[in-house]
Design the sequence.
């Protein structure tokens, strides 16, 4: 079967799933099955086919499963968003159209992604500026104590989402040049041969940047994502286990120091360690006044929601996400705060159960597998490193948010790629997907 | 016969949908996984040139003898292969291992050295420069299977499979 035929076929299950998902929600809502869900399913399939045609025209030989796997997780996101609030789903669908436009633009404009190497320092500078901007007054904006978004007029966007791609491009290009000197040369210190200081410098600078990010944007998740991608790249570039090991040690030490100094990070860690602590949960003051939640309320509720899902889940549209407290006025208390962004994984688990949640994780795993496969097949070092970096940063993003929601690591506000509500995340991840497909096309094109 | 009230159908339809969704989901994932595993055991996807797929990661891997294949060079047959051995100097002069008659080449133009399992190419201060995959060589660079080394109008491909 030709790769593009496979891709077109692989899009059908997603269209089927989104139709079924919407049907389930309509059933729950109005006890009525109309043809509306078929229209939604058809529209989704049409969007996917547009993406498919773009790939068919620009990257005929590229990996056939990357795009359908994205479509699969995206349809979960759309169904859940519709279920939370129709307006979310409507604007999310709009973001998908814009994201797909950006995807097409990248596919058409960036025929030779090796050009990116020429602008690596510009790209790196741009990424750093994007990361620092949220901290500036007027345009910066703090969300739950972390500085992640920029607000210009009515538009706000998540700078880190775009910065991650820039940083990966820079690192791939930089490490392609220097990886040899990192392996060979330099003095031996305590039996470990260290690279010469001239080359160690930039590596230390990257570690320093990660630490600065931690202090500056106060977000453990993003720093972990960036630094983890860096370690994955340096491991692949040099083939030496000592670099990631030293890196993990350095990051852990730095994170520990910063974590014990910065109040916001401290709160997150405390909430992570004791989510059911009555004071942290905020159970001390319930009914009077507008209810106030503790720092661990979100995480604890997420754990309850996931446990409640059981093996098969409650079914699409059946989760309780809000409850009305009547005493002291009608206040709708969110049972799952931020269920459209941070907590969407918990909501999916509640509605589709362990099976559905595992399927999402499996879909991401397969995406990552295909991504690393692109790296293995790539023909030149820069392509290999670029594909590795993009895949690693994507995988780490999923890990950071799913890990946070399931209480493996402290919870931080990173989006679940292609599922969470938010334009920046969708657009940036579509660009990431386009780059991966470009590398894949280069690697699999018959010579 | 009266038609079943719609409300009575809702429950069974919901349940059917729930399990239908799970079934479609897992069938799809199983298909992707199967294709991926099949790709793995086949080693390479059809579209990939033989040899390249096995190049694996970036780290030096034990492979065949490193050698240069002539792509185009005056006085050499395209397709000829030269073993690099522990190292080789390319140039126009007489004290070299691979002699090329190229007007743009210097006497001792470039050198290949084997170092810790990797072969490194290095320009020996030539006048017109050495190009690795059409990029001018700035410092010593490790070679990957399939890399192209160009000196003036002479071009080699590096092989070690």
Sequence:
């Amino acid at each position: 079967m030709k790769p593009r035929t496979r891709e077109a076929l692989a899009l059908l299950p997603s269209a089927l799933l989104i139709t079924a998902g919407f049907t389930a929600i309509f059933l729950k809502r109005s006890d009525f099955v109309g043809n509306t869900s078929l229209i939604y399913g058809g529209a989704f399939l049409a969007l996917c086919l547009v993406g498919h045609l773009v790939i068919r025209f620009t990257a005929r030989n590229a990996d056939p499963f990357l795009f359908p796997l994205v479509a699969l997780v995206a349809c979960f996101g759309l169904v859940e968003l519709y279920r939370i609030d129709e307006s979310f789903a409507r604007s999310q669908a709009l973001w998908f159209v814009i994201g797909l436009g950006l995807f097409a633009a990248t596919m058409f404009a960036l025929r030779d992604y090796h050009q990116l190497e020429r602008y690596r320092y510009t790209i790196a500078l741009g990424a750093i500026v994007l990361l620092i901007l949220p901290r500036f007054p007027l345009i910066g904006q703090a969300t739950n104590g972390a500085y992640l978004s920029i607000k210009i007029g009515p538009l706000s966007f998540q700078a880190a989402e775009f910065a991650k791609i820039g940083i990966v491009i820079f690192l791939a290009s930089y490490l392609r040049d220097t990886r040899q000197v990192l392996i060979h040369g330099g003095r031996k210190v305590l039996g470990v041969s260290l690279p010469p200081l001239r080359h160690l410098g930039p590596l230390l600078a990257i570690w320093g940047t990660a630490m600065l990010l931690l202090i500056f944007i106060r977000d453990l998740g993003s720093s972990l994502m960036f630094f983890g991608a860096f370690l994955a790249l340096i491991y692949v570039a040099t083939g030496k286990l000592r670099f990631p090991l030293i890196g993990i040690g350095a990051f852990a030490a730095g994170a520990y120091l910063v974590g014990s100094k910065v109040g916001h990070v401290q709160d997150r860690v405390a909430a992570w360690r004791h989510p059911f602590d009555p004071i942290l949960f905020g159970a001390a003051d319930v009914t009077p006044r507008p209810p106030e939640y503790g720092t661990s309320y979100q995480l604890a509720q997420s754990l309850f929601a996931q446990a409640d899902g059981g093996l098969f889940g409650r079914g699409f549209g059946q989760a309780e996400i809000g409850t009305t407290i009547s005493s002291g006025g009608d206040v709708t208390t969110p049972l799952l705060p931020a269920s459209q962004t941070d907590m969407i994984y918990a909501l999916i688990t509640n509605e589709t159960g362990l099976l559905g949640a595992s399927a999402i994780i499996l879909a991401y795993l397969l995406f990552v597998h295909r991504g690393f496969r692109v790296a293995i097949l790539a023909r030149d070092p820069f392509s290999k490193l670029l594909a590795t970096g993009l895949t690693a940063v994507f995988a780490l993003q999923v890990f950071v948010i799913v890990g946070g929601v399931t209480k493996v690591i402290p919870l931080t506000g990173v989006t679940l790629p292609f599922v969470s509500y938010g334009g920046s995340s969708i657009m940036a991840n579509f660009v990431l997907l386009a780059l991966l497909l470009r590398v894949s096309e280069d690697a699999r094109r018959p010579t | 016969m009266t038609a079943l009230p719609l409300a009575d159908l809702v429950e069974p339809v919901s349940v059917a949908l729930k399990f239908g969704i799970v079934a479609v989901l897992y069938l799809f994932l199983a298909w992707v996984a199967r294709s991926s595993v099949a790709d793995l055991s086949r080693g390479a996807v059809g579209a990939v040139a033989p040899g390249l797929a096995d190049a694996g990661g970036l780290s030096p891997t034990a492979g065949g003898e490193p050698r240069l294949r002539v792509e185009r060079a005056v006085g050499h047959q395209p397709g000829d292969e030269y073993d690099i051995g522990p190292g080789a100097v390319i140039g126009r002069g007489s004290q070299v291992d691979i002699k090329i008659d190229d007007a743009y080449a210097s006497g001792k133009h470039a050198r290949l050295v084997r170092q810790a399992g990797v072969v490194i190419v290095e320009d020996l201060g030539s006048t017109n420069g050495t190009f690795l995959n059409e990029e001018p060589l700035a410092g010593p660079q490790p070679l990957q299977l399939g890399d192209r080394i160009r000196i003036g109008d002479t071009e080699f491909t590096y092989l070690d499979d």
In short: Chain A has 15 helices and seven strands. Strands of chain A lie at 140-143, 146-152, 155-158, 188-189, 192-193, 322-325, 331-334. Chain A touches chain B through 55 residues (CB under 8 Å).
